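W.,

You were right to be curious about this one. When I first looked at the sequence I had no strong expectations either way, so I just let the prediction run and decided to look at it fresh. Below is the sequence, 450 residues in total, followed by the output.
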Amino acid sequence: MGSPTAQLVVAIALVLLAGVFAAADAAISTVSQARTDGLVRIGRAGARQLAAVVAERRRHINLLLLLRLSCELTATVLVTVSFVHWFGELWLAVLLSAVVMVVVSYVLIGVGPRTIGRQHPYRVGTTVAGLVRVLGSVLGPLSRLLIVIGNAITPGQGFREGPFSSEVELRELVDMAQERGVVEDSEREMIHSVFELGDTVAREVMVPRTEIVWIERTKTVRQALALALRTGFTRVPVIGESVDDIVGVVNIKDLMPAFMDPDGPSTVVDAVMNPASFVPDSKRLDELLKEMQRTHNHMAIAVDEYGGTAGLLSIEDILEEIVGEITDESDTDERPEVEELEGGAVRVSSRLGIDDLGELFGIDLEEDHDVETVGGLLAERLGRVPLPGAEAEVAGLRLFAEGGKDRRGRMRITSVVVHPADAEAVTESGARRRTRVPQPEERDRRVEHA
């Protein structure tokens, strides 16, 4: 087979060739089809060859793996034979060749070339693509035969397309892109939100039952339009006997033409409403979004396991789970959930739990009330959806609702000023006032509820 020196020279050449194949493997595994097509359009040298290789990425990567292993194993055999000739002792020659080839394979094949291939994938790819295509044409049948044998021995796919095979790996890739400045932090959060959409159910984003603004089916178009204008909602659920009996949804675009008709203002809402869409409150948001797009529905009523109304949500609520809350210069800064005021009063978020409110004043609110939030507590006491300015007394506490129009023009309460009965409170305007709980007939005069 020639002198030991010649054998060693051939082994070194094979190691270098194996390094080239390792770099080509790493580069072809890293490049994207889209950017490769872009290189073809601008006429980059070797781009067409690279595009052809990427089009059959699996076959060419398997071929490069075969060639690299062939070079590596052949070089190991040659080094062992040379060492046997030089040292005479077989065990010593095998030991030395094993140590040398492990170090050489790790540095010159495993780490160095692969790092270069990943750092400069398009430069390496366009350089070696022509050689890879030629080798693929010559050795393609052999490579395919070995793949068939390997698949027969080992079940399942031995190669996965792309740089990731699971959602977790893709999320990690997005995080790495954000750390390197490839994508903005807001874009990273948006991409993560898309994945989380499939893990989020309707009950987590819906408007709770206690905050639903509704109208009875026997009310008139005039009353429905007044309610829509006052609250800012363009779609309002229509109920029958109770909020658990939602019979439809009335849209402001249907109310306006009906109101302009000579007999329109006195027409009952039942005549102009549309069918309501019902979904279980456990439905995943990604499925719900597809369904709402397919049926052209912008609002869905969420029902619980007993068939009762749990809440409602719109397509905008789902989209906000992806893009987040949108604020402008007219929006005020977010307040903390609990803000201490003068005179022992506190301003709390309308979504604060009643157990937390009870802890603030040393009373138990959970035992006698079948709601979970301060806003729900106020709605339960009033018997209707509270609007800004509504007030009530519950368990020796005075509650005053604060809020206004949200960015879509809808009236919402955002906070509630709470203080012991007969104590002064500070309202949102900053003025000190002594609140008095209005009697039922006074509430009906002050805040018309259609």
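Here's what jumped out at me. Residues 121-153 form the longest helix (33 residues). And, maybe more interesting for your project: DSSP finds 15 helices and 14 strands in the chain.

Coffee later to discuss?

I.
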